[in-house]
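Why run this: before we spend reagent on co-expression, it is cheaper to look at a predicted model of the complex and decide which construct boundaries make sense. The entries below are exactly what would go into the expression plan.
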Amino acid sequence: MGPRVRVGVIVGVHGVRGAVRIKSFTEEPADIGYYSPMEDEAGGTKFRLKVTGEVKGLVIATLEGIADRNAAEALKGTGLWVPRERLPGRLAEDEFLYSDLIGLVVEAVDGKRLGTVKAVADYGAGDVLDIKLEPKGDMMVPFTKDSVPEVDIAGGRLVVVPPVYAPDENEERNGGA
Amino acid sequence: MARSVWKGPFLDGYMLGKADKARASGRNEVIKIWSRRSTILPQFVGLTFGVYNGQKFIPVLVTENMIGHKFGEFSPTRTFYGHAVDKKAKRK
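The model came back. Tokens follow.
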């Protein structure tokens, strides 16, 4: 079995006809329906899911074979997993999925291991890699060709040029943060 | 003329000096700033600022469509990464 990703989790029930509320981890919550069928964490149970609506940031869906509230309640807390290859495969040049970047080993240009990618975030000024440094500390690097010259998803690594901060005479006055 | 127009955009005084210095150096350095309240001006386009969020400096590469916004808008103080598994990151 290849790598899998969790696209959602069942967090509650909706109504008395077996509908469930799902916290979706896809970029557009309702897109979780496109990944049906899904399986639980153990891979033993398959779920065919049909999205029927959205409420308060959660997706409402019906599951094939689940027709009453009690059966739906028993699924509360179940994660919904799909194989990695089911995620969008066609990416433009220099485009990467967040889930592929997270966990990559971070190396300096000279090959020295610096740490791993903890998270990727976009605060409105482009994507930023949050890197957990080894043995401790963290570093934020803009996801640009200058700062991240090499991304090797297959090799599980990326190369980073750590940011150089301009000297600041006011730093001590501001608490040296 | 409206008061907000003749007063001009707010900017902490030292920001322009820092930006000029960084641009003159020619190196691609990150400029550490604590002034989240300052407005992003056209002369900052192309520079990278490390905007303090109370904990760390978030790198902000200034582009044209960020002019007029405040630096603090791009450096959230409460971080929630989310879980978007199929979200795409574009390397610029």
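Chain A is about 5% helix and 40% strand. The radius of gyration of chain A is 21 Å. Bring this page to Monday's planning discussion.
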